[in-house]
Fold each of these.
Amino acid sequence: MAKILSFANQKGGVGKSTICLQMAFYLAENKDLRVLVVDMDVQGNTSSRLAPRSKDDNGNNVYHYSGTRTAELFGAGKLKIQAMKCPAGMDLIHTPRNDPDLAEVEELPLETAENPAKHLAEFAKNYDYVLIDCPPSLGRKLVGALVASTHVVCPIKLSGFAVDGVEDILTTVIGVQQTANKQLELVGIVINDMDRSQSHEKALKQLYDSVPDVLLENRIMHRPPLDTATSEGVPVWSLNYGHVAAREVKAVLAEIQKKVG
Ligand SMILES: Nc1ncnc2c1ncn2[C@@H]1O[C@H](COP(=O)(O)OP(=O)(O)OP(=O)(O)O)[C@@H](O)[C@H]1O
Ligand SMILES: [Mg+2]
């Protein structure tokens, strides 16, 4: 059975796409593993980072998308899914930049959130891991991802309100566990983009006081090479100046993989 992992937090900019993308590279490096990425974010950044690309005459990237779009997973009718093959070895169900069809999913009836799980149930059997990059708001898409998942990973950034943000996403996860998806397992919270400031240390202590059981052991500090690797769509361990970032990221990815089994 495929492990279907959502990278979820209704807060924006916490590292969902970064960790999802690096996890995809990490797993796909193992040629024995079949990996599928589903880009549930209208921004489509994960799709452009993974898809085959070439340069136009002006040196700009041109992305070569093919196969099923994520928006189609929210349809009720029969769907023959075709995933795109990515150069780094994984498959992708993609979202073109600012896909209006995926944005419109939020206007559809609530039951729409159950459709991706129905469509993916059969298709996911072709894979060992399915990684879902979730959007930064609570709506049909995020719920749709969580209903379809076996596991959820929640990246967070520390701030004065770290604990509030954590409560919101944990409430969402528990809501889905109690209703549409009793199998959903919380892998844990990944503390990301941390620095040594007093406010981060204080927020960290607050988190350990309030939700110690759900925090992953490893965490990722503020590491500019990780930002570079993500924007370029490459593994952070492929950069020759990102050793510390690579070590931290790989420790988190290995911990997630171990917990998921
Ligand atoms: N540990 C880190 N060190 C430095 N930069 C980071 C780190 N983690 C993430 N970033 C950068 O922070 C920005 C937000 O990260 P990312 O896009 O992964 O967040 P997100 O949760 O997917 O955002 P959104 O909610 O918009 O989808 C990106 O520019 C990313 O490269
Ligand atoms: Mg994102």
Amino acid sequence: MRIDVFTLFPGSFDWFASQRHVANALAGGHELALVNYRDHTPLSAGQVDDTPFGGGAGMVLRVDVVEAALRAHYGEDPVALRERRRVIALQPSGRVLDDRIVDELAAEDELTLLCGRYEGFDERIVEHFTSDRLSIGRYVLAGGELAAMVVCDAVLRKLPGALGHAESALEESFSDALEGGPEYPHYTRPAQWRGWEVPEVLLSGHHARIAQWRLQQSRERAAADRGDAGS
Ligand SMILES: C[S@@+](CC[C@H](N)C(=O)[O-])C[C@H]1O[C@@H](n2cnc3c(N)ncnc32)[C@H](O)[C@@H]1O
């Protein structure tokens, strides 16, 4: 997979790219490219944004600047680009990211993520250049960079070879193995701490009983999340 992230702050991804599962994915042939809108602006003095028509606070990312960056990187009209590739605007009001969307994105060969800053995007960017609007939650961050990292993190760890133990991704919260429910509780040594004990079944060595207990725990947590007491 190749993920291209368009941002005004490519340096903010340095830490992210060094994380083990991301580094594994990149070493395994997946790609994460960072494109700075400012490097492609047709305006003088590196200008990328402007004041909003109609007044109001803040600065708005300009459509001509984003078009120039997309054209420079892909060599084609971004209006056509979104027909053959997911071009995703990160926006607080977009479709809220969940495990199903992550699976959907992880099945793509290529993704483009557009990070906004300040007041966000000129609406024509979203309307004409993007295929999706994605949010990482109903709150407002200062910029799209953290949101892009969340999307990349969740997507890259789904790719073969990213995790040290491939099984980790098979049986975790929201996976089919747990019927889409939350994960069961984990415990490790010491088996006793301040009188707090580990469930006996996990120490039994009986794999079938352990699997059954874990699934039951997951189901109970799912029921609690749904609020159906007693089920
Ligand atoms: C300060 S926000 C703009 C908020 C915008 N004025 C609004 O009220 O919806 C700047 C940028 O951060 C990113 N951003 C902020 N919160 C986000 C969220 N919850 N999910 C995805 N992106 C977010 C978007 O790229 C956005 O353009």
Amino acid sequence: EIKGGVPLGYSTHRRWEWVYHQRSIRGEVVFQAQGRRQRLQGQRLSGNRDNTYPCLAVKPIMEPKLYRPPPEVRGMTSLDKDAFTQTITVPALRVPIGVLNKVVKSLKKSSIQRPGVPRVVQDKEQSSDFRLVLLDPRRVSSPSSFSETEAEALRSFSVSEELHYYELKLTYDNLKSEEVLEAVLPQGQDVTSAFSRVGHIAHMNLRDHQLTYKNLIGQVIMDKNPGVTCVVNKMNIIDSTYRNFKMEVLAGEENMVAKVKENGVTYEFDFSRVYWNPRLSTEHQRVVQLVKRGDTVFDVFAGVGPFAIPAARLGASILANDLNPESYRWLQHNCKLNKVESKVRAFNLDGRAFIRGPLKQELPVLMRGTSAVHVVMNLPALALDFLDAFRGLLHHQEPPCDENLPTVHCYGFSKDDDPDTDVVERASRSLGFPLKHRCSVHFVRNVAPNKDMMCVRFTLPKDVLFGSDAEESGKESLLMRSSKKNNNKTA
Ligand SMILES: C[S@@+](CC[C@H](N)C(=O)[O-])C[C@H]1O[C@@H](n2cnc3c(N)ncnc32)[C@H](O)[C@@H]1O
């Protein structure tokens, strides 16, 4: 257990795995721990009241720093790049020009490696037949610091192991963004400079203590990340309806119209007015791969088209809907941009109205055909509840004999210890039909320490579509009917 730490930078990169970083008072990462939630039954990483964190492996990673910033930069709110310039003394080897390249190759691990800093410099004191190879002072403090292989290489090239010293000027341009921010922000506070990239926009989620330095942080992120010309900060939690953020520009141009490429498809949209998440590209691809030429896809919460457009490019027919007029507008724009406007019909309706309108209208004919029908519902905060719109959708119609029932891909967030069961139960309640053993569940991603995004996939039951649409009685009877059927099957 790590006691008294604050889970400052901690990420879960796979479903049950987490990585925890603990920082020292100076803000350095001093511990890295990783573990598996599975083995910690009943314990929640962020839920321990006594501020302890269970871990299975602890790896101290205290590395001395190459650059110690001038103390005057601490507290700076407007970026003064010159104030970061500093001269440090680094060890070096005197190497004859004839073997220079070979020596540099052999000393890859010990030589200085930093963007914009030369590894080889002129030897001012000596003749032009020699150069100095600069070494990393954190790795080399005396000739005995060289590894056996390195020492042997030096001997074979007849290069003396004697260390020389060189005054190296480090400027703002040679520093990493974390080094600049660690030097400026109050000591001991988190300086995480993580951001997501959407085209030319870097978007950050600054903490309260970082807000005083927001413009400086924005400028540093822009300087250190080629291609980023605008840095924004999310000003609130996600907008409840359209899933977009209020944003404040911290640095750079105020152009929010981003152009991105995902899985080979280009999208354009106003990032401040629509939903876009670069972390969903694998999920978009996973679902789109299930779609074949000639299939039909109903995308109930389509956004700007990351399921709809690639599926249309594969030759499927798409009915794509979004309640946000801006998403609808950019969806249409992206259809034109990708030349699939003839394959996509766009709608600007509420999800239930879309299911009970265009979807209901098209479904009977499609169910008599042989091509697959997919319904994609990616609004994880609410989509499971929207499944009730399918109850009794085709109540007064005659079920076709060889029905070609739609496959639903419905997303949901879960904070439950057993997210698979949780989302299946919630989907079942909403449909009024037990989906257990009749669906598959896919873990999409971990959105917060104890919050998973899941996708439930199932064939829309005939009983749901053609059953009674009466809310409560329908629920009861469908559940009963279907569990009776199940019992009969098992019997
Ligand atoms: C999580 S985003 C997903 C967008 C897109 N499918 C994607 O994967 O990136 C959910 C979308 O649902 C839209 N939305 C929210 N409430 C809605 C509703 N009641 N009916 C239809 N669309 C809605 C939002 O505007 C947003 O574009």
